[in-house]
Write a structure and sequence with these properties.
By secondary structure, this protein is an all-alpha fold. It has helices spanning 5-16, 22-25, 34-47, 53-65, 71-75, 79-88, 95-113, 117-123, 128-136, 143-153, 166-175, 181-188, 194-209, 212-215.
Length: 217
């Protein structure tokens, strides 16, 4: 656990040094286009489920590899096909319910926003409170899922920053970097800094992968 402000900033720079957030570290591009944003939202839904986070990542990759890389394409898939892809990717639990939820999420994004979450941002007039409200009005998107999505999207949608999910804040506390998203923003150059998204994503990885020892040597 670090103590001085210089040590905290040094560790923050080290963590954010990869220049990529959580999703991009695991092969999901975070760009401001409809396909990328929807894939990140689906990944957030999978990550919010109980179980090994690697299984959620496998599920996100499997959806994309099946050709369902956009809301419109996923909405056009059959429930049975979604169940098969989720099962092969190692997902656990009620796969029929998960497949139905993902289908409902895709159809709703298509119906309300023509498959483009940037339209949700426009509908909210870039008001972060309204953006979160519109997100949590989507099927399967609760506050936890919204946190996971916005953790990544804050690199693009600066108005929502700072956002740090539960895992990132756990790691921040254990490493002595702070207790709030605002604390982390102070270490990374500001609320709307892209580096903040990199730092928060890296902290989430530290907690999920249990990499505390290597950072405190």
């Amino acid at each position: 656990m670090v103590s001085t402000i210089e040590d905290r900033k040094r560790l923050a720079r080290r963590l954010a040094g990869s220049g990529r957030g959580f999703a991009e570290q695991y092969g999901f591009r975070v760009t401001n286009n409809p396909s990328s944003l929807f894939q990140v939202l689906c990944l957030a839904v999978l990550l919010a489920r109980r179980g090994d986070f690697r299984r959620a990542l496998d599920g996100g990759h499997a959806l994309r590899e099946a050709g369902w890389d956009s809301a419109a394409r996923l909405a056009g898939s059959s429930p049975a096909d979604r169940v098969d892809v989720l099962r092969v990717s190692g997902q656990r639990g009620d796969l029929d319910a998960l497949a139905d939820l993902l289908g409902a999420l895709a159809r709703t994004v298509v119906d309300r926003y023509r498959g483009d979450l940037r339209r949700l941002r426009s509908a909210a007039h870039r008001d972060p409170v309204r953006e979160r409200a519109l997100l949590t009005a989507l099927p399967g998107v609760d506050e936890q899922v919204a946190d996971l999505f916005l953790r990544e999207a804050q690199a693009l949608w600066g108005e929502v920053a700072p956002v740090a999910d539960r895992r990132a804040l756990t790691a921040a506390r254990r490493l002595g970097l702070g207790r709030t998203a605002e604390d982390l923003a102070g270490l990374s150059g500001g609320r709307a800094s892209e580096r903040l998204a990199w730092l928060v994503g890296a902290l989430a990885r530290v907690d999920l992968e249990g990499r505390y020892a290597e950072l405190t040597r």
